[in-house]
From TrEMBL:
Residues 1-23 form the signal peptide. This is Lipoprotein. Keywords: Signal.
Length: 218
């Protein structure tokens, strides 16, 4: 039976692309929001369900870290954690976890990529164009990774507006034990509005720090 994105996850996914939340209620975590159920210590995040751990893409001591927002959605079979920052408003990092009962080899990868492509192409009315496809070592296992380009037209909603921009989407899919992770990262191309210096280095550091648990989670 196909694994589908839950409505809460779809809302998380698209809301980050449409706008950035304002920073509020800064607390002992040193970031804009502290209402998270996962653990955050010195720029290292661990999911509340212990499914994965990763260094935050925006590092402690930076303006981007101080204005970072972490959104979480946990479910018995799937969960998603999203990292954004108002200092890099078009740079979004998503970790989508699938827990146990993985379908036949390759099927979940095909389902996940198809659903994400459909979400972004329907949301913005433009296609994703392939740039690279390669294998990548993450968390001690081989992951499939790819980068695609997409043109995002100018848009407005709820009194907010955004300029047209060309962005890059990169995804990484890996399985370990009973679990799978689909990591989706998007950012403006370097010469585009909203591009921030060091994005590619942040992506490399984020991916290289990612740890997916192999233990059963359900």
């Amino acid at each position: 039976m196909p694994r589908l994105l839950a409505p809460a996850l779809i809302t998380l996914l698209l809301s980050a692309c449409a706008s950035q939340q304002n920073a509020n209620d800064a607390t002992t975590t040193g970031i804009a929001n502290s209402l998270i159920s996962g653990e955050l210590e010195h720029g290292h995040y661990r999911a509340a369900d212990d499914s994965f751990a990763v260094d935050t893409p925006f590092r402690p001591g930076s303006e981007a870290y101080a204005s970072m927002h972490i959104a979480e959605s946990f479910d018995i079979s799937e969960s998603q954690v999203l990292f954004t920052s108002s200092a890099a408003p078009v740079e979004v990092y998503r970790v989508h976890l699938f827990k146990g009962n993985l379908p036949a080899e390759g099927e979940l990868y095909r389902q996940a990529t198809a659903q994400y492509f459909q979400l972004f192409e329907e949301r913005y009315g433009t296609t994703l164009e392939p740039i690279t496809l390669q294998d990548h070592q993450i968390s001690g296992v081989s992951a499939t990774s790819a980068t695609f380009g997409q043109y995002i037209p100018a848009r407005s909603a709820l009194g907010m507006s955004a300029d047209a921009v060309d962005i890059w989407h990169s995804y990484y899919y890996l399985e370990r034990g009973d679990n799978a992770a689909f990591i989706w990262i998007n950012r403006p191309q370097p010469d585009q509005p909203g591009a921030t210096a060091g994005a590619e280095e942040r992506i490399d550091a984020f991916i290289n720090s990612f740890e997916l648990t192999s233990k059963p989670l359900r």
